[in-house]
TrEMBL record:
The keyword Oxidoreductase applies. It catalyses: L-allo-threonine + NADP(+) = aminoacetone + CO2 + NADPH; 3-hydroxypropanoate + NADP(+) = 3-oxopropanoate + NADPH + H(+). Keywords: Oxidoreductase. Transmembrane segments: none annotated. Its EC number is 1.1.1.298, 1.1.1.381. Gene3D superfamilies: NAD(P)-binding Rossmann-like Domain. It comes from Mesorhizobium tianshanense. Belongs to the short-chain dehydrogenases/reductases (SDR) family. This is NADP-dependent 3-hydroxy acid dehydrogenase YdfG. It comes from the Bacteria.
């Protein structure tokens, strides 16, 4: 049980990069923490640093979210620890190789982590949040969710899944006091790029955000009640116009009548 009024934030992928910054910022905001990733050693370092600077309780659970038994352990924790008030679904891997140069097994592993594990953790925690009438889920998607042409297509597709799931969760949980935020970072200076077989140095400097800035911006978006936060986007109106265009399509996406442009063959 947490002694924090803010409760416990569970952050996956907290051993480095964006997840480690979320851990720091959430502890500074008063959350106790449970940090999840594979590397026990790196998690312990992050936890020691944050506990030292903030005085919050920081626990670590070393788990490979692509290992069924490990994943089940984190699901059980999320379902049963009544002190948990927030889940940051951040653990993820990327790829930059095009389809013809990609390893299928690596693609499957990426789907397992970015999609399956995130989904299972969400399913584990939502009933508990609903039962307690409160909770927040932050899902780390990516700018490539809406621009899948930029990097590896399977990576983009996993992040589009995260965006779609978040939109749906927001609708389903609207009157349950469970808050959903999907964050769509652009290129961010972390180990992500090396792990994906690339290097952040090959990107133009003006395209790459610092991970501290990214997380601070994303949390500002959370504070403003945003469902979708695109930390790099200069003008929020651009996203609102995109979303308005999507909403305008919805009533016409399922109709019994075939539109004239597809009746050419029948008419001939
Ligand atoms: N950096 C960028 O440009 C962007 C990143 N993102 C997203 O941000 C998120 C965080 O990535 P970022 O911080 O950049 O990259 P990092 O590589 O620094 O962090 C990835 C984190 O995920 C953990 N992780 C990887 N595999 C597993 C696994 N099988 N089980 C549990 N934990 C795992 C890693 O820890 P460990 O190795 O110890 O398990 C690490 O803590 C990802 O979802 C990524 O897709 C989105 C857009 C842009
Ligand atoms: N969002 C970043 C990766 O996921 C990028 O846009 O490069």
């Amino acid at each position: 049980m947490s002694t924090s009024l803010k409760g416990i934030a569970v952050v996956t992928g907290a051993s480095s990069g964006i997840g480690a910054i979320y851990a720091d910022r959430l502890a500074r905001r008063g959350h106790d923490l449970i940090l999840v990733a594979r590397s026990q050693e790196k998690l312990a370092e992050v936890a020691k640093r944050i506990a030292g600077t903030t005085g919050r309780a920081v626990n670590v659970v070393a788990a490979d979210l692509n290992n069924k038994a490990d994943l089940n352990r984190i699901e059980a924790l999320l379902a049963t620890d009544s002190g948990i008030t927030m889940l940051v679904n951040n653990a993820g891997v990327g790829a930059v190789a095009p389809l013809l140069e990609s390893d299928t097994d690596a693609m499957e592993e990426m789907i397992a982590l970015n999609v399956t594990a995130l989904t299972r953790l969400t399913y584990a925690v939502v009933p508990a949040f609903v039962a307690r009438s409160g909770g927040t889920i932050i899902n780390i998607s990516s700018a490539v969710a809406i621009a899948p042409e930029i990097l590896n297509g399977v990576y983009g597709a996993t992040k589009a899944f995260v965006l779609a799931l978040s939109l749906s969760l927001h609708k389903e949980l609207a009157n349950k006091n469970v808050h959903i935020q999907a964050v769509l970072p652009g290129a961010t200076a972390t180990n992500f790029w090396d792990a994906a077989g690339s290097s952040v140095e090959q990107l133009p400097e003006q395209m790459v955000m610092r991970s501290d800035d990214l997380v601070d911006a994303a949390l500002a978006g959370l504070d403003q009640g945003e469902l979708i936060t695109i930390p790099s986007l200069p003008d929020a109106a651009d996203w609102l116009a995109y979303e308005a265009a999507r909403q305008k399509l919805i009533p016409n996406l399922s109709l019994n009548l075939v539109p004239a442009r597809y009746r050419i063959a029948a008419a001939a």
